[in-house]
Amino acid sequence: MTPSLIHKHILLGVTGSIAAYKSADIVRRLREAGAIVRVIMTENAKRFITPLTMQAVSGHPIHEDLFDVRAEAAMGHIELARWADVIVVAPATADFMARLANGNANDLLTTLCLATRAPIALAPAMNQAMWQHVLTQDTLQVLKQKGIYFFEPDEGSQACGDVGPGRMMEPVEIVKKVSQLFVTGMLAGKKILITAGPTHEAIDPVRYMTNASSGKMGYALAQAAFEAGAEVSLISGPVHLAVLPHVTCFSVVSAQEMYAAVMKIVTHYDIFLAVAAVADYRCQHVLKQKLHKEEEQTQLQLERNPDIITAVGKLTKRPLIVGFAAETEDVIPRAKQKRKQKNMDLIVANCVGEGMGMNSDDNEVTVIGANFEKMLPRMSKQQLARALIEMIAKF
Ligand code: C5P
């Protein structure tokens, strides 16, 4: 496993070059590193390697046609463009580079490149004369200026018998380069403490009160903070998520436990990111025996849980504080008020419901500071986490 590739969504584009036979190896290595890979093949790519091979190594059907009704019904091209954390085209032919530089969207792969917000990286492969041709070199410069990443070709013997630059970079190196795309170093040297997930508030030995939080946003932020070079600790409520290697995780159950765990260590951190959906109330008396249902009605006496952010905000040696506000109405005004009330530096406001926010894979938020408000449109929680970490690092 490669930490920065774990769970990453990688769209691998394969275009028509003899180096396409190495694309299967790239897929295999990306998956071994922890990534989820979907493959798009151009018509000419299929002359060099079969869709069946690429399907077998990726574990997913191949995407090949912009106008395939069945494929569009399963995962449409816009959805696929949103799904991607990165688009890697390996091998990328001179023709593909030229079409992309020209802004064409005349097949599925070029269309996806225009439709995505994810970074795009190209590993060119072609005859050495074609690579060195002034038109190809001009195209390379145009694409680089537009922010396209290049894994430039190696020198050596070529399938056509020539010797020179144009051989596709070896799969092992390509995978390394893809993993480096996610490692930014923006929070290098910083220590960040994150709370995530729900809390469980016991009613009796078998029952508890909780909420719909899955912990996905907090875990995605922990992963993104790690990739940004921070030393990350996570205080997690009960969730069903895989442990994050390279993140120190403390498991807690109740709000009081989360409060105690945070207050014990928070002064050692530069940034406190409170993502957990902490239960506001707990039972005043947790029953020692199971509550029986003989009665028509029963009443639980609740009392307030401590507010963790507020307590951290009052510390004299206080870290930078970033909180979340999940609301169903008056989202922005409520978040603004909460930011001030709880002495947060930034608050991330999100409207929950309709497939977004709690327990979903996507989110759409507005980040609010003392003098600014920035909306981040709907995207996956992983993509959002990277955007938020970048904003926090700049802040
Ligand atoms: O007031 P509300 O619960 O909406 O505030 C949300 C923010 O406050 C989140 O960042 C959450 O982690 C934090 N919070 C907290 N302690 C609580 C309740 C919420 O730190 N008891």
Task: Give an overview of the whole structure.
It is built from 14 helices and 19 strands. It folds into two domains: 3-181, Flavin prenyltransferase-like (Rossmann fold), CATH 3.40.50.1950; 191-394, CoaB-like (Rossmann fold). The protein has helices at residues 23-32, 51-58, 69-75, 77-83, 94-101, 108-115, 128-132, 134-145, 171-181, 216-227, 255-265, 308-313, 331-341, 381-394, and strands at 9-14, 36-41, 86-92, 120-124, 149-150, 154-157, 163-167, 191-196, 201-204, 207-209, 231-236, 248-251, 271-274, 281-283, 302-304, 320-327, 346-351, 362-368, 373-380. It binds cytidine-5'-monophosphate (C5P).
CATH superfamily of the largest domain: CoaB-like
**Structural class of the secondary elements?**
alpha/beta
Percent range of helical residues: 25-40%
Total count of helical runs of at least 4 residues: 14
Largest sheet: 8 strands, mixed
> Whole-number radius of gyration?
25 Å
Which CATH-level-2 architecture of the largest domain? 3-Layer(aba) Sandwich
Mean pLDDT: 94
Shape: elongated
Instruction: Count all strands and give the number.
Output: 19
Number of domains: 2
Strand order of the largest sheet: 12-11-8-13-16-17-18-19
Please name the CATH topology of the largest domain.
Answer: Rossmann fold
CATH class of the largest domain: Alpha Beta
In whole angstroms, the N-to-C terminal distance is 32 Å
> What is the multimeric organization of the chains shown?
single chain
Residue windows where pLDDT falls under 50 for at least 5 positions: none
Bound molecule types: cytidine-5'-monophosphate
Q: How much of the polypeptide forms β-strand, as a percent range?
A: 15-25%
